[in-house]
Specification:
The structure holds 2 protein chains of 2 kinds. Chain A is of the alpha+beta class. Chain A contains 8 helices and 20 strands. Chain A has 2 domains: 228 residues, Rossmann fold (3-Layer(aba) Sandwich), CATH 3.40.50.300; 115 residues, OB fold (Dihydrolipoamide Acetyltransferase, E2P) (Beta Barrel), CATH 2.40.50. Chain A is elongated, with a radius of gyration of 25 Å. The radius of gyration of chain B is 23 Å and the shape is globular. The chains are: A alpha+beta, B mainly alpha. The structure holds adenosine-5'-diphosphate and magnesium ion.
Chain lengths: 360, 285
């Protein structure tokens, strides 16, 4: 349905300013052919701006957009062959589903019978064959999204852009559509850039994730790397749940660092980011902690227990009052836990050591 | 529940004052007018008949005046649309502050007195007016054009005066169109022109039809503009009715002319409304 091989997309030193305000700052992304990447970040971090720059609706202040190594920055949106599905789908309300899907082909001056055949094929791909004669307002949200996708794929775009594609769908449908889009994308091999502020969505669907914060690219990596080895405090706290336990750096080598937390010392297999004696934050995911009733580790007070399906989520307070979330298997958890317990950190699963930001 | 029912059944009373006003000052005179139009004789002896209508339809001159008037409306309305659409498009796109300023400029003709602005136009369009001075100075014509007391002049002035009636509904409709639709069209490979003709124009059709209806009815009935700018040599329906009623005191004939004029305009407006209904049904269900 698309060209046999995907196309590479490169953002080179993209900077975008709205007046004084910098919405994107020196963004560099090398997206490989056939890859599905997510632009992830909180609202207002510049995701839509980047998408508009790629599609050509907005001209970047500096930098270049390249497809297969060729600059497309000088091309208007209608000559870029980059498909975009808007958050609100933007289906043409006065045209039927079939007319919507055939729109791009008609604009390209394709003969009627070829348009009809492609429309038929595209509607089959998104399982909307029976709906060709309907108007967009006669469709549900999920169906509208399928049509928007079919309309976009019908012109065989080189790149597919999806702006918050699942945010308007309810939760059950969202998962179905995520699986379906992932499947379609795999099948067609089309290079895809998806914008989302939902980290779970980004983690589950993407080959790689670009985490953005205030116009700055924080990290561009695979979901597991982003989750297990966040490179900044921002990425660490934005993706997944992270406990930040304050400590002091005691000794460090090239490969590890020992951190004093209260009365105990933990050796972390990560290089220390600060000078010896300086405060650090140790980031530990809830599943990398264990609670036990027998002494050893950090003494904690348990503030709350929430049973969530097969797991238990504990909210524990360290001696200095720092709250810590702990996830345990219900089966594997210590039945004898009372109000006070002891917390062990699985040192090899610590996801990051960060300099403690100075209070400001 | 009972309270709501009671409230509902009482609500019609709110419309009573307006209804009364409407009946006394619009419906009653209208029926009076229609009644008078069936008076067979000028003296209104009470004898009824279609004499006035046959007299109106029997004279080609009358039909020409009717045709001229309806055509005048078409010309001025078309010009309003041609100039008003780009203006409305611009207003729908600029920043809020500029938008307020532009809308103020557009409605300015409504808030100035009709007599004042008509005389202003007489000064502008006259043989030695700024318009003709400019045309002669630019070498576009060796002699001044006859704009005043000509249909061209009437059309120009009507276009300016009735512009707000066209622009305001258009602005409303254009602002409601999702800007992503135009973006989507472009991303699908359509040029700016194709996007305009396939997306923006069809979606603004309800506004175009509303604007056309308002402008058209205002143009064909613009008595002051038609008679002051058109002068005594050009005759349109409102002036004809005025002459028959006031100068010749021929009330039955004036009434019949009025009814014929009203029916003609209503037929045109009715067609436009039907068109807009089907359009709106297609767009918004
Ligand atoms: N046309 C514009 N003019 C001025 N500022 C803008 C404009 N568009 C976006 N911005 C600003 O740029 C920043 C990034 O916006 P956007 O890319 O829409 O963020 P996101 O999609 O990540 O929520 C925001 O702070 C927003 O206020
Ligand atoms: Mg956005």
């Amino acid at each position: 349905m698309t060209d046999a091989t995907g196309h590479a997309l490169t953002l080179a030193h993209i900077t975008h300013r709205f007046g004084e305000f910098v919405a994107a700052r020196d963004i560099n992304l090398e997206i490989r052919p056939g890859e599905l990447i997510s632009l992830l970040g909180p609202s207002g971090c510049g995701k839509t701006t980047l998408l508009k720059i790629i599609a050509g609706f907005q001209r970047q202040s500096e930098g270049d957009v390249l497809v297969d190594g060729q600059s497309i920055s000088h091309l208007p949106p209608n000559r870029r062959r980059i498909g975009i599905v808007f958050q609100n789908y933007a289906l043409f309300p006065h045209m039927t589903v079939a007319e919507n899907v055939g729109y791009g082909l008609a604009a390209a001056g394709k003969p009627k019978n070829e348009i009809a055949a492609t429309v038929e094929e595209m509607l089959a791909v998104v399982q909307m064959t029976a709906f060709g004669g309907r108007l967009p307002r006669e469709l549900s949200g999920g169906q509208q999204q399928r049509v928007a996708l079919a309309r976009c794929l019908a012109i065989r775009p080189r790149i597919l852009l999806l702006d918050e594609p699942f945010s308007a769908l309810d939760k059950n449908l969202r998962l179905d559509m995520q699986i379906e889009i992932k499947h379609l994308q795999r099948q067609s091999g089309i290079t895809t850039v998806l914008v989302t502020h939902d980290q779970e969505e980004a983690l589950s669907i993407s080959d790689r994730i670009a985490v953005l914060s205030r116009g700055h690219l924080e990290q561009f990596d695979t979901p597991t790397e982003i989750y297990d080895r966040p490179r900044s405090l921002f990425v660490n706290t934005f993706v997944g749940t992270a406990n930040l336990i304050p400590g002091v750096l005691e000794t460090k080598t090239a490969h590890d660092a020992s951190i004093r937390i209260g009365e105990t010392v933990v050796v972390v297999p990560l290089p220390g980011p600060v000078a010896i004696g300086a405060p650090v934050l140790v980031s530990v995911r809830p599943e990398a902690l264990r609670l036990s009733s027998s002494p050893g580790g950090l003494p904690v007070r348990i503030a709350a227990v929430l049973p969530i399906g097969p797991s238990l989520i504990y909210e524990a307070l360290l001696a200095d009052g720092t709250p810590v979330k702990v996830v345990q298997d219900r089966a594997g958890s210590d039945a004898a836990l009372s109000d006070t317990a002891f917390l062990t950190i699985m040192a090899h699963r610590i996801s990051g050591l960060f300099a403690k930001p100075s209070q400001s | 529940m009972a309270g709501a029912m009671e409230k509902k059944s009482n609500e019609w009373r709110l419309a009573l004052p307006l209804t009364l006003f409407f009946v006394v000052f619009f419906v009653a005179p209208l029926f009076l007018l229609i009644g008078i139009s069936f008076q067979a004789e000028r003296r209104m002896t009470g004898a009824l008949g279609l004499n006035q209508y046959t007299a109106f339809l029997g004279d080609r001159l009358n039909l020409e005046v009717l045709g001229d008037t309806l055509l005048l409306g078409v010309k001025a309305t078309l010009l309003c649309l041609i100039f008003g659409y780009p203006l409305a498009w611009l207003i729908a796109r600029v920043s809020a502050r500029l938008q307020a300023l532009l809308i103020f400029l557009v409605i300015l003709p409504i808030v100035t007195s009709v007599v004042v602005r008509t005389f202003a136009w007489i000064v502008i369009l006259g043989r030695r007016g700024i318009f003709n001075d400019a045309i002669v100075a630019l070498g576009l014509s060796p002699t001044p054009l006859h704009l005043l007391f000509s249909e061209t002049g009437v059309v120009i002035v009507l276009t300016q005066v009735q512009m707000p009636l066209m622009v305001l509904p258009l602005v409303t409709v254009l602002q409601r169109i999702d800007p992503n639709l135009a973006s989507a069209s472009q991303a699908l490979g359509a040029s700016a022109w194709r996007t305009f003709f396939k997306i923006t124009l069809p979606l603004s059709m309800p506004g175009i039809i509303a604007g056309v209806i308002l402008t058209y009815t205002a143009c064909v009935t613009a008595f002051v503009t038609q008679s002051l700018i058109g002068g005594s040599r050009l005759l349109y329906m409102p002036m004809m009715i005025f002459q028959q009623a006031m100068d010749l005191q021929n009330w039955p004939f004036a009434a019949a002319v009025s009814v014929m004029f009203m029916i003609s305009v209503l037929v045109i407006v009715g067609l436009l409304v039907a068109l807009s209904r089907s359009r709106a049904a297609q767009l918004y269900g």
